[in-house]
Amino acid sequence: MLLSSLILLSGLSFATAACSPTEEPANTEEPTPAPEPEPTPEPQPGNGHTLVVYFSCTNTTKGIAERIAEITDGALHRIVPETPYTSEDLNYNNSSSRANREQNDPAARPAISSKIENFSDYDVVFLGYPIWWGKAPKIIHTFLESLNLSGKTIVPFCTSHSSGIGSSDIDLHESAEKAAWKKGKRFNGNESAGTIKDWIESMNLNLNQNSNVGVFNLSKGENGKAPTVRLSSGYDMPIVGLGTYSLHGDVCVNSVKAALASGFRKIDTAHMYDNEEEVGQGVRESGVPREEIFVATKLYPNQFSNPEAAIEECLRKLDIGYIDLMLLHHPGTDDVKAYKAMEKYVAQGKIRSIGLSNYYIKEMTEFLPQVNIKPVLVQNEIHPYYQEKGIVEYMHSQGIVVEAWYPLGGRGHTAALLGNETISKIANAHGKSSAQVILRWDLQRGVVVIPGSSNPDHIKENISIFDFELTDEEMSQIAALDRNEKHDWY
């Protein structure tokens, strides 16, 4: 009993002072009356996509939650128990007190009276609670199990005098297995706003800064320096990259180095390209800091049955510490199994973002309900003769970035596309090449591009597309070239 008392005193200390506004424990074991619970209606307005939820008896957790909501511009919601806790309910000296019984009962799920409308609108949920006997109060499990949290990002935080968060955040995962969980953080009641802000920024959460994945801020780009789009994982990705399909050996290594020297900061590879080792070598030898480079790779369907071994092989071959983005190359048997393995590597920090390639509306709608982390990106064949207008619109509506492979038409088709009369005429009007016009057209319609080349001049040309803009009429003229003409089988 003494040990139990010490744990509680170092945690929430919810004996006689449990429902008073002060953090410090009282010096008497005489219970004090609990204050009336604060009414909590719908979440207080915020940016519409971030929700800060908390349960608090001493109001310590409330204070931290309010600071988080202010920093993130998030909505604020208090979890209110259907039956309020009294001081006697929280008396740690009484082994039969309500809180003691609940914490010792794995099945305990205290009822909640507060409700959240339009919960599906929120992408990121900060979840705050005090530490009770080294754990989150069971009412937190009630909250998690009452909602559909699939695809949500949950950021747990707790309050205590001195004890850490322990395993309290990990123990909550079973109540929301389809959510993407961030590592929890413990705060004391007087934590500064600066410390809290630093913690939030360290997670690279997508708090809807540049949340419209279908509109790029091209004014921030300059020739040799592409702007970025923020992925739903919270990481920023350059909107122009180098495709490395068909590049091998020294040609691949030198192409990667030439691209990075020209200002590229995104490189795309894949297991099927058989050049991950060369891409990794080019990155390491480029002289550009690793953290400035965004590297994407892909698992092929023949790897889906043993995805952990495949992921480890990618990490070994690239040898660049971590993978910025990993995709499934196209649908196949065990694709969900492979994706869930990638989710585990995201939790370990070895992969930062995950997505798909060659998935269309039917495949995506079937796939999404089966996974926990929403794909940040889909990479499909897109060019003026195969524009995927409906698919692009659908993916953008889901918050999924669209990236074009074969943006210049692909093997055996590039020359014909670049020689198209309409495109050539627009290129001449701007003093640009046809390739530059096509790449700019993609960016203006919100599609990321990864043109491939081993020619240093062409590589430099492909990232020199930020000093001109296509008119609405020119965009319409290129849109009219759509033939639904696919150039590969994927």
TrEMBL record:
Keywords, comma-separated and alphabetical: NADP, Oxidoreductase, Signal
Chain spans, region Disordered: 19-49, 87-108
PROSITE patterns: ALDOKETO_REDUCTASE_2
Ranges annotated as biased composition (Low complexity): 21-31
Biased composition (Pro residues): 32-44
Signal sequence interval, chain numbering: 1-17
Catalysis: reaction(s): hydroxyacetone + NADP(+) = methylglyoxal + NADPH + H(+)
KW Kinase (keyword) present: no
Segments forming domain NADP-dependent oxidoreductase: 253-482
Domain Flavodoxin-like: 50-202
Compositionally biased residues, Polar residues: 87-98
The keyword Nucleotide-binding is assigned to this record: no
GO molecular function: FMN binding; oxidoreductase activity, acting on the CH-OH group of donors, NAD or NADP as acceptor
Family: Belongs to the aldo/keto reductase family.
Annotated protein name in UniProt: Aldo/keto reductase
Species per Swiss-Prot/TrEMBL record: Parabacteroides acidifaciens
Organism placement in taxonomy: Bacteria, Pseudomonadati, Bacteroidota, Bacteroidia, Bacteroidales
